[in-house]
Amino acid sequence: MADAKFLKFDTLSLHAGQRPDPATGARAVPIYQSTSYVFDDTDHAASLFNLERPGHIYSRISNPTVAVLEERLAALDGGVGAVCTASGQAALTLAIMTLMDAGGHIVASSSIYGGSRNLLAYTLPRFGITTTFVSPRDLDGFRAAIRPETRLLFGEVLGNPGLEVLDIPGLSVIAHDSGLPLMVDATFVTPYLCKPLSVGADLVMHSCTKWLAGHGVAIGGVVIDGGTFDWEASGKFPTLTEPYAGYHGIDFAEEYGPAAFIMRARAEGLRDFGACMSPMNAFQILQGVETLPLRMKGHIHNTRKVLGFLESEAYAENGSVAWVTHPELPDHPDHRLRAQLLPHGAGSIISFGIKGGREAGRRFIEKLALFSHLANVGDAKSLVIHPASTTHAQLDAEALAAAGVGEDMIRLSIGLEDCDDLIDDLRQALRAATKA
Amino acid sequence: MDLTVNGQTVYAHTGGRPFDPARPAIVLIHGAGMDHTVWSLQSRYLAHHGRSVLAVDLPGHGRSAGAPLPSIEELADWVVALLDAAGVAKVALAGHSMGALVALETAARHGDRIESLALLGVAETMPVHPDLLAAAALNDPSAIELVVGWGHGPCGHVGGAAAPGLSLVPGGRRLMQRARPGVLGVDLGACNAYGRGGAAAAAVSCPALFLLGGVDRMTPAKSGKALAAKVSGSEVVLLSGIGHMVMTEAPNATTDAFSARFAAR
Predict the structure, then answer these.
(1) pLDDT value at position B265?
(2) Cβ atoms within 10 Å of A43's Cβ, excluding its own
(3) Most CB atoms closer than 10 Å: which of A135, A154, B24, B217?
(4) Residue among B16, B146, B164 minimizing CB distance to A67
(5) Cβ contacts (< 8 Å) between B177 and chain A: which residues?
(6) ipTM confidence score
(7) Which residues carry this modification: N6-(pyridoxal phosphate)lysine (chain A) (predicted)?
(8) Per-window interface: A 212-231 vs B, CB < 8 A
(9) A184 - beta bridge partners?
(10) What's the confidence (pLDDT) of residue A2?
């Protein structure tokens, strides 16, 4: 019989989650800049509040524009549902708050975004949730760090800023052996390069601010539920498997099956913690998602060209660069894992060490003309930062070392400019920085 | 709630309110390889609008014990055993796809126990392609892909779901992946073998609602209409642009149709 037909990635990027607006026929996703929605009658209102009917009540909990982005991102990652949040940090917080209470414990990769590390290491312990950090390459360490009160394993597909490739299938086995879910931050790769849910992760999150949006004009985050984890069999997640007094005694696993997590994340997490995405931001991020496949191809193309320059000219010929790290380089420790998990490209972040250490790094950044020095990644414009003095500045020397951050490390986020212009800019800045 | 039916534990979701046999009851029957969660919205709505609800997990499905039953006729008799276990004499019966065949056959065989019918995504026969039957029998993942791919209409594939943030195709896939090995194969075999649809329709004496997807590729609307024509006094609601997964692709239209016929204050 004929194979089943499913819409492909490029098509979903443009269409998923939206049908032309029934009221106006608008083809673009309208910006529903409204706090609230008129009920048909009192019975309709009661039905919405009691989860008897789907629909919108108040834009903190759901909004029609945001819902299009949520459904589109869920479709692109292959998840059963998604909740968009005010930022990537809010997405991580929402997931944790949905899964555990005070006393909960997380085992996380030590090579993660500095903001995520701050949340896990310093802020959440104030609320009774602690984290053990383990090198992303130390799978035995992950297994050993799991305790009876552990509720989540967490890592980033590509470590930040070390660019370690997370062994998602291996970690997934370790998590599931202990009745725990694995959540993966896939911000650096987007679903175009890697769908963590398809290789063993149970939850995936993104900072939409980065490559998903691509334009650098909107902050946002998303958590996506793969619907794969069996919360009832685990027995460790009463928020999902026991009656919830805050919603008429609803048992989310009983009621929604594979969508239990994402329904609770919205019904409780957005309702009570309130870190929702604005409709304007959702609209702006949607404009980016529409061109995600095209942009990611461009990011990967330019990244490979810049890698070629750094490896052949800057490192081998004139020695202005001490080392270069990217998972696509043959000497990267995770090169083989990269080929398995990221066959179409390993993102557009490059880390390298400049000869001359911190002072040369400072001069290099100041000499760059096209690369923008700022605390962001994943913009269409190329970016540069010195992690030890910015994104990871809160870390002490030991934590810096554990996160793989050296004082000479420069992190590039390769954009979509003509790659010859990017290489020219890097060449002149390296020459100026190392000549002195 | 858990019930004991034919000596086995059976789970039925009651829509967020305790089951009360003194109130008019409705039984909701899911399709092949699925479970009670396909009715989550309608279950809650009806339970809070005057009905006692049993959104059942058929034997071997979801939270119910035992093995899946191999024929529609056996499932129909099982439904009556369920009613006995729940202590209700007469119920409304709603079913989707395979569940619709079960509801139809139950109404034909045990008309004195059925007050009214709602049949979603239904046709007189549901022949299953041999390749799909074989794949399902082998627990080949391609069987689920075929059912999910063909089962959803444009609303499922493109999206624009009524429930904010939910993606129907991945959701349907995950739901079927949760079924125990062999269940989908037995269910599809039961659908494929059932040949009494026309005779059962002619024997139905209660009001019957047919809720049909306008672009249903598994049980095309014209087949559903032909079956409806064999039920005296039946009513057809045709949902434009909707595929086979009627209650998840068009949850509000489904609830509206149920509300008009089943809700009571």
Answers:
(1) 53
(2) 17
(3) A154
(4) B164
(5) 228
(6) 0.95
(7) 210
(8) 226-228, 230
(9) A155, A204
(10) 75
Tell how many helices (H) and how many strands (E) occur in chain B.
12, 8
pTM of the model: 0.96
For residue A72, pLDDT over 60 is answered with yes
User: Which of A1, A4, A227 is facing B171, going by the closest CB pair?
Assistant: A227
Residues of A with Cβ-Cβ distance to B150 under 8 angstroms: 4
Residues 235-254 of A with CB under 8 A from B: 248-250, 254
- The tokens describing A260, both together, are 């239990």
Look at B44 and A52 and tell me if their CB atoms are within 8 Å: yes
CA B34 to chain centre: 9
Q: Which residues of B touch A226 (CB under 8 A)?
A: 174
- List chain B residues with pLDDT less than 70: 264-265
Mean per-residue pLDDT, A79-89: 98
Contact between A88 and A62 (Cβ < 8 Å): no
pLDDT digits (tens, 9 = 90+) for B42-87: 999 999 999 999 999 999 999 999 999 999 999 999 999 999 999 9
All structural domains of chain A:
34-289 (3.40.640.10), 292-435 (3.90.1150.10)
Tokens standing for residue B138? 């082998």
Nearest to B148 among A4, A46, A80 (CB): A4
Listing DSSP states for A238-269 in one string gives HHHHS-BGGGTTB-HHHHHGGGHHHHHIIIII
Residue A68, chain B, CB below 8 Å: the answer is yes
pLDDT over 70 (residue A403): no
- State chain B's maximal CA–CA distance in angstroms: 48
* Residues in chain B whose Cβ is within 8 Å of chain A: 13, 16, 35, 37, 40-41, 44-45, 48, 62, 129, 131-132, 145-150, 155, 157-167, 169-171, 174-175, 177-178, 251-252, 255
- How far lies A349's CA from each of A65, A124, A321, A415, B86, in Å? 31, 29, 16, 10, 61
> How many residues in total does chain B contain?
265
Given pLDDT bands bounded at 50, 70 and 90, which one contains residue A315?
confident
B45–A53 C-beta distance less than 8 A? yes
Q: Residue A21: pLDDT above 90? A: no
Phi then psi for B213, rounded to 5 degrees? -80, 130
Percent of chain A exceeding pLDDT 90 equals 85
**Domains defined along chain B, listed by start:** 2-262 (3.40.50.1820)
Per-residue pLDDT of A345-364, as tens digits, reads 999 999 999 998 878 888 99
Of B162, B164, B167, the CB nearest to A79: B167
Q: How confident is the model at residue A382 (pLDDT cuts 50, 70, 90)?
A: very high
| B158 with A18: Cβ contact below 8 A | yes
CB of A140 closer than 8 Å to CB of A418: no
Q: DSSP string of A363-424?
A: HHHHH-SSSEESS----SS-EEE-GGGTTTTTS-HHHHHHTT--TTEEEEE--SS-HHHHHH
CB contact under 8 A, B160 and A266: no
